[in-house]
Amino acid sequence: MTTTDLGTNPMDGSPLEAAFIGVAELPSGKYPERPFIGSLVQVAAAAVKDAGLQIADIDTVLLIPCLHSPDDQADLIFSRVIEELGLHGRAKASAMLHSGGSTSDNITRVAAGLIASGQAKNVLVVQADKWGSAPVADMVDMLSRYGIPREWERPTGLTFNAVGGLITQRYMAASGSTAEEMAAVCVALRQWARLNPNAMYKDKDLTIEKILSSKMICDPIRAMECPMLADGAAAYVMTSTANARRNHDRWARIAGSGGCVSHYSIGQENDLAVLGWKTAGDRAYGQAGWGPDDADIAEVYDSYAAVLTIGLEGLGLCKPNEGARLFAAGEFSPGGRLPVNTNGGLLSAGHTGVGGGTALLVEGIRQLLGRAEADRQIPNCRRAVCGGTGGTYMDSQVLLLERVNK
C-alpha cells in the first residue's frame, strides 16, 4: 500500500474532484415487452435515487449509445431523455459520446472534467440497449460491418466472432493454454453470474464439458464461449467531492486513468496476444501511485475469454501467459485470490452492446460503495481496476477507482 488509510487524506482529493455516488441497473436478458425509452427512464431514476438526489438535481445528462436502432439512437442524440425525465428547460446539457465497449471509461473522463471545471454539478450517465430483442438478422448484419474495415477486411467475410477466433488462436499459441483452460474462464464468470440477480444466466450452470461439446462457431471458439446478445440498462451519477461529502459517508473516486488506441484494422495490430493493455495500465498506475497488487477487484471487458485473459495479463493482475491457467485453478472465481468480473461479465451477465463495458464499470462502483448483494459483495473492497475496449479491441481504456470514507 502506498497510503495508510483509504478515506482520509490524501485520498479525499480536491473539492472539485469527481465522485461516484449512485448506480442502478436493470436485469439483462431478452425482454421484448420492456420499452427502450422506458428502460432509460427507469434506470436513470433508480440511479438518481441511489445517489440520494432528486431528478431535478441533475444538470447534465451524458448518454451512452445504443446499437439496436438508428431511430432510438437519434432520440438519444436529440435530447429525448431530458424531456422524458422532466428536465427540459432545466438541464444544461445532453450529449453522447461513443467509443464502443470503452465508452463508459471515456465518458467518465468527460464527466469528471465537467465537474472539475465547474461546468456541471451533478452528472447522470445512462445507457440502454435492446440487443436481445432486436431482429437477429439485423444484429448479425451490424456485427459484420461495424468496426470491420470495408476496404480490406470486410470483403474477406471477417466478423466479430472471426476476430475473437483470431485473437483466441494467437493467445493460445503464445500462452500454451488448452481448450479446457479457455473454457474455464467462461465457467468462472458463470459462477459470478449465479450470484447476480440481474445476470442473463443467473439460473443456468455451466461446465467445461458443456462448453467443449457445444457447436464450433469460429475455431477455436465454441457457441458457449460467445457472448449472448441481451437487453439491458445501466446508469451512474457523479458529482464533486465537496457535494459528496455533504450528503454521503462513502463515495468512489478516480485514482488513475490510462488508455492506448492501438489500431483500427485488426490487421495492423502488432500482437493479438498483447493489444494495448500494458501501455494503458502503466499510464493509469503512474497516476494512481499504486499498482496491480493493491487491487481488490477487477472488472475488465470479456466479450471472449481471451480478451479477458489478455487484459488481466497486460494490466499486471497476473503473469503473462498465465491468465487462462489461473482461471482453471479458481484464482478469479468466487472465493479466489482476486475477484474478476463479479457481475458475470459480458459472457454470463449478457452482452448489452456498448453497455457491456458500462455494466462492468457500474459493478466496480457498486462494489466500492458496498451495495452489491451479500453473496457477491467483496468484503472491505477499496480499490478496483476497471477496463473497457471497443470495436475490434482497437483501444484499451483503464480506470482505477478507490473507495473514500468521510
Kindly describe this structure.
This protein has 14 helices and eleven strands. It has helices spanning 36-50, 70-77, 80-84, 103-116, 136-143, 160-175, 179-193, 208-212, 241-247, 277-288, 305-314, 323-328, 345-349, 355-369; strands at 18-29, 60-64, 93-96, 123-130, 216-218, 221-222, 231-240, 250-261, 297-300, 383-388, 395-405. Helix 6 crosses helix 11, helix 7 crosses helix 11 and helix 10 packs across helix 11 (305-314). The longest helix has 16 residues, at 160-175.
List the helices and strands and how they pair.
Elements (H helix, E strand, L loop, with lengths): L17 E12 L6 H15 L9 E5 L5 H8 L2 H5 L8 E4 L6 H14 L6 E8 L5 H8 L16 H16 L3 H15 L14 H5 L3 E3 L2 E2 L8 E10 H7 L2 E12 L15 H12 L8 E4 L4 H10 L8 H6 L16 H5 L5 H15 L13 E6 L6 E11 L1
Parallel strand pairs: 2-3, 2-4, 9-10
Antiparallel strand pairs: 1-7, 1-8, 4-7, 5-6, 8-11, 10-11
Helix pairs in contact: 6-11, 7-11, 10-11
Characteristics of this structure?
single chain, 406 residues, alpha/beta, nine-stranded mixed β-sheet, two-stranded antiparallel ribbon, 14 helices, 35% helix, globular, disordered N terminus
* Unreliable parts: 1-10
Major β-sheet strand ordering: 3-2-4-7-1-8-11-10-9
Oligomer type: single chain
Task: Count all strands and give the number.
Answer: 11
- Per DSSP, the total helix count is 14
Distance between the termini: 20 Å
- Which radius of gyration do the C-alpha atoms yield? 20 Å
* Largest sheet features: 9 strands, mixed
Shape descriptor: globular
**β-sheet strand percentage:** 15-25%
**Helix fraction?**
25-40%
| Element-level helix/strand string | EHEHHEHEHHHHEEEHEHEHHHHEE
How confident overall, as mean pLDDT? 95
